[in-house]
Amino acid sequence: MAPITEVEGRRVPLSNLEKVLYPATGFTKGEVLHYYATVAEVLLPHLRDRAVSFLRYPDGPDGQVFFTKNVPPGTPEWVTTAEVPRVEGPSRMVVVQDLPSLMWAANLVTEFHTHQWLVDTPQEADRIVFDLDPGTPATIVHCCEVALWLRERLAEDGIEAYAKTSGSKGLHLLGAVRGASSERTSEYAKGLAVEAEQAMPRLVLHRMTRSLRPGKVFVDWSQNAARKTTATPYTLRARPEPLVSAPVTWAEVEECRSPGQLAFHAQDLPPRVQDYGDLLAPLLDPEHAGPLP
Q1: Which of 24, 27, 31, 270 suits 58 as a labelling partner, its CA being 20 to 30 A distant?
Q2: Under a CB-based contact definition with an 8 Å cutoff, are residues 185 and 228 in contact?
Q3: Global confidence as pTM
């Protein structure tokens, strides 16, 4: 039987704490749970009031990896859930509102993925996102160049951009928006991706066509679609090492000269949070949200 721990008055079962999930570094499930507990103060605000998709990897990144969108069997009654719209009909998803829910979800061994809208207002996007994905031999260094162009272009339209690593190969660019549907936000994002390709044709691609991607940065604008989700800030990723989707400063983006400069492991995040706080906190402030032009 899994040991039970009490988290803010809730009884949370935690299992297999000694299990090694990241063989390359020996990082265990217990360390995964400790990581999430340590960064909960900055992670929870980005999960709160958003339906969560779990990308689960209970046996580590080399085992079975699968998405869980509906409320998993055995979910405690005290975990918040919400009905969300889907093309095939409404479904019920988890909403991680507090530390006990976070620790319960972390025990499932998961990446956290969230929509660009809140469960109370699914018809209105509150974030715009660009997923900058480099095709080998391009790297995150090239993503930084594209991110800087997009930052300036978004600023022209009154949208302040913030950056985080994807926790994989690329970079995510986010901005707070208001008053637009996911469809309208996707349309606007696609327009900017096309502009970026026109401005930097040797570097940028706005289409997903695999054969065109080597050596270029694919500006994925499609994650603004209502049905799509993006890796939540501070989530661990199912990679060979315990890499994190980590917020970064624009100075770090400007100064990036090698991929290793923007690769952050779980152990790197607590001191970064202590030094910087939540670099993406402005995304949570409605006053920072700008209307789409």
Answers
A1: 270
A2: no
A3: 0.96
Query: What are the tens digits of pLDDT across the range 234-276?
Result: 999 999 999 999 999 999 999 999 999 999 999 999 999 999 9
Q: Could you identify the residue written with the tokens 């670099």?
A: 279
- Rounded CA separation 68/54 (Å): 5
Contact 188, 180 (CB under 8 A): yes
- Amino acid residing at 75: T
- Residue 25 DSSP code: T
* Pairing state between β 171-180 and 290-291: parallel
* Residue 242 tokens, joined: 């315990």
98 near 7, Cβ under 8 Å? no
Taking a C-beta distance cutoff of 8 angstroms, is the pair 113, 232 a contact? yes
Place of tokens 């080998």: 136
Q: The tokens 């989700």 sit on which residue?
A: 229
